[in-house]
User: Fold these one by one.
Assistant:
Number 1:
Amino acid sequence: MEKYVLHMADTRGKADYGWLQSRHTFSFANYYNPQRMNFGALRVLNDDIVQGGMGFGEHPHQNMEIVSIPLEGDLKHTDSTGRSEIIKKGDVQVMSAGTGLTHSEMNAHKDNMVKFLQIWIVPNKINVAPRYDQITLRTADRKNRLQQIVSPSAEDQGVWIHQDAWFHLGRLDKGLELTYTLKKANNGVYSFLISGDMTINGQSLNTRDGFGIWGIDSLEIKANDDTELLLMEVPMEHQSGLD
């Protein structure tokens, strides 16, 4: 049976620390909503704006798959695996925290803000060796199609994580219609509209709205305006992990 959950943009949790403005789709930090703990294995979807020269100092994670997607500006990453990288728009970064690591995320510039999505996925395997990866994507490959950016396999397109999850980004022109077929039975799909106006399986969505749906085999997507969309297919049942 088809089931769904709708999270309108203005109903998300909000944090404003001056140097950081963040919107939380699911419970995180000081935002707690027992009705919004997760969508299957999708545990965190944070929509962050970091002011110039500021950022998140060194802090720990454990047993979580963490995906970062820059939307504007450059993010400087350092971690206890020895990596130090600049993540730019068009890049996708992943960390498998596993047995534990520390990292920091800073705006790489003093004069410009950086905007990025940070997503936490509960893994299907815990206490793995910590791992970092980053790729640069051809953004042209998401023009009027869905570009895969995350998968469970290192042999597949995008970065890989320890979970039967697939992420896709699309930049769709007004009027375009397409179908997304789920990769695995009993998974669900959480759609996050980065910008624009679209309809998914009859549900209208606007900028920064989120729509989770499960009990289905495919999604029917129509762009009602020029849109940018993130689709996250995840298991609806999962092993528990730690953050």
Number 2:
Amino acid sequence: MILTTGSAGFIGSNFVLEWFAVCDEPVINLDKLTYAGNLENLASLQNNPHHKFVKGDIGDAALVGKLLTEHKPRAVVNFAAESHVDRSIHGPEDFIQTNIVGTFHLLEAVRAYWNGLPAQEKADFRVLHVSTDEVYGSLAKDDPAFRETNRYEPNSPYSASKAASDHLVRAYHHTYGLPVLTTNCSNNYGPYHFPEKLIPLCIHNALAGKPLPIYGDGQQIRDWLYVKDHCSAIRRVLEGGQLGEVYNIGGWNEKANLNVVHTLCEILDELSPRADGQSYKTQITFVNDRPGHDRRYAIDATRLERELGWKPAETFETGIRKTVQWYLDNQSWVQNVTSGAYRDWVGAQYGA
């Protein structure tokens, strides 16, 4: 059995779904169910006896300790995090509480449980902490991609809070011997992505006839990773990663934001054309850039391929087409998550 945290959210729910697609090992799923946590993501597991959902906070050390003692998982995979840069700019406190304080309480509960395990179970136990490439800061156009040895230079409250959590995880390994693994991923996209991030937001707005908001000149570059590839990489690191080590997970797909949106529009023009025959590109609108917007991220995932034999199965072209098709096929899911509170937030962030 494994315990996953934050796994009613985008990446975590995809991980649990993919986990059961390849094995039947039971999962205890702990999630606080904030705005981005959605049990509808896990609806297909409702009758699965191997999946147990528990509503709760990683900062609740007593609850985490109780789950560990009762279910005796062999591993903990931590997805729980506040993860949107824009929201961290407007309200950083939630990011400090969840990503730093929450991670601390989780580590304390796990350490107490791990210390009490029999020798073999203690040796086999793992904690995998899921983090982001944003902890490394921003790259110039011609800089080499981020490697695991890059120093941390976070530039937003979000990335600073994730950097702090990474440091705590590292410290618990070096101080207490806790058997940890850390992964730093590039920008994910795919099914069940809450529509505040670029790709799902633009798909949602395009179909609704609304502007497609692009920050600044749209030339911010990101390395795009299909979420199911990310999930397979996490499983591989959990299985074979070296204790105390960091593994960068990337899609080898550097794209400027504006180019991503152009591709989305072209696929939508093909799969769900506008009634007036015009391209969705006519809805693109440039808005004021956000404060401190990092110009470029890029992941060098060579270590993961060299040591553990992992590389992504999807190109950006195949992954983005699957993503657009999923949103077209699951409009009821989109409508259910885009509540009035969500609409108010988008209006405040990008303008009416």
Number 3:
Amino acid sequence: MTVLVTGGAGFIGSNFVIDWLAERSEPVINLDKLTYAGNLENLAELRGDPRYVFIRGDIGERPFIERLLRKHTPRAVINFAAESHVDRSIHGPGDFIQTNIVGAFNLLECVRAHFSAMDETARSRFRFLHVSTDEVYGSLDANAPAFSETHRYQPNSPYSASKAASDHLVRAYHHTYGLPVLTTHCSNNYGPCQFPEKLIPLIIVNALAGKHLPIYGDGMQIRDWLYVSDHCAAIRRVLDAGTPGETYNIGGWSEKPNLDIVHAIVDLLDEWRPRADGQSYGEQIAHVADRPGHDRRYAIDAGKIERELSWRPAETFASGLRKTVRWYLDHPDWLANVQSGAYRDWLEKNYVDMDR
């Protein structure tokens, strides 16, 4: 018995792999293409663990994925593999179409063949879990109800449109071919090992470097914030007990404007790592032009997963943010390697024996 995790060297994927092996003995095959956000330093603590195998590869390489599935015969596939940064999708949407749509299609085709070749017992326990985003639902007005699983799709960026397309493919493979799929839609994740292009690590990094803390527009864009370990626990729960063909929203019950997030980080840094001049890091806040098509509000109604699968987040936003800021302060080498690009050397130095 083993599970295959795709995109397991990224932020959420690497946290999932580490949490999985901390909670369970079942081995993990970690497949990642290692694009700019794939960082094997995130998984350094698993080096030498016999339950863990890393494989460098692309979900778009169909013959390779077919061989991998035949060799390792996973009883579940958890698909994190995706391009996920909205700003990057605006400036270069092609990679998002290729990975999030074409790659997802290739992976589904390979998994469908793998599933069809299983005996009845193996088929009954097999699952394909597709990790998606709340951004496929579009933007909410200030007083509108939070996104439920039945909210219509209204993606507003190339990123969210590409994820919406992959969601539709996953749904179609269940209804057309009987593939036992599960889809999750998460809200904004934060926590250790997040690439510093996203809001929370970017603010931490820029504050410590004495740079401006950029805030789009008025900073009142609202997001629901989910600590990454809570997200990982929810995915494990959906994999264990979710109903094939169903969708589950995963949220943190923590709606906050971006400006409030920045001020909360500033308060922690002022307490734990005060500026040498005695001034607050708040002096570095700078409002910049809003990005094109910026969604105003996302909010997740996570009631279904609570009612049906008895899951709720363990962290409040305050407790999760404290853990997050502390992690970045305690891991300056990780930050330095990401900022310099030195993390890319980790592969050559430490993974010469990759299973390929």
Number 4:
Amino acid sequence: MILVTGGAGFIGANFVLDWLAHGGEPVVNLDALTYAGNLQNLQPIAGDGRYRFVHGDIRDRDLVERLLADQAVRAIVHFAAESHVDRSIHGPEDFVATNVVGTFRLLEAARAHWAALPAADRGAFRFVHISTDEVYGSLGPADPAFTETNPYQPNSPYAATKAASDHLVRGYHHTYGLPVVTTNCSNNYGPYQFPEKLIPLVIHNALAGKPLPIYGDGRQVRDWLYVGDHCAAIRRVLEAGVPGEVYNVGGASEMANIDVVHTLCGILDELQPRADGRSYREQITFVKDRPGHDRRYAIDATKIATTLGWRPAETFASGIRRTVRWYLDHQDWVADVTSGSYRDWMAKHYAS
């Protein structure tokens, strides 16, 4: 069995669904169900005997140790994290608590579990730590893309706490021998993404007739990775990744935020036109840039391609169209997750 932390969140839920769809062994999903965790994401596997959900916090070491022992866990895939830069600016303490303290306690429980395994099982055990390209900082327009050897230069509380967790994971391998593998991915998009992130936010606001808020001039560049491709990369890393190694995972799809929004508007104009016949582009609104906003991220995924044979299957054009169709077909899911505290947060954050 494998233990997935944060498996009710966006990437975690997609991974659990993907893992079981590809015939992987049983999964126990540990999730605290904070605002972005949603068990509806896992409705497609409700009743699947290979899946078990446990409501709990990765900071609860006793709980984690019991799960590792009782479920005979042979691998941990660690997604659980606070992940939204804007929220980290308003409330960084939660990010330190989950991303740093939580990862530390999970590592401690994993180390104790691993040390107690028979020798053959110790060699097969893996701790896969899911991280972000944001730990590397910001690139200039002509700079080469991030490789695994780029120095860490985090520029937000979120990125700093993920960098700290990466260092802890590295330290536990080099000090204790814990067989860890770290992946640093670019911006994910796809089904089940909480609509505070750019792509689902734009789709939701466009259909609701609300402004489409764009930070600054909208020319911030990101590398976009379809979540299904990311899940395939993690499966491959879990299968053949070398302990102690880091693998950058990217979609080979650099694009400025404003161009992403224009693309979304064009697809929506085609698939679900406005009643007045005008383009959704008319709803674009430029808002004050957030503090310390990184200008460009780009991932060089050569290492994982050459050593593990993984490459993204989706282009941005194919992946973004699949994503828009999913949100159009799942408006009930969107309505459920955009009620209550989400509305309060959006009103507060974009009040200016």
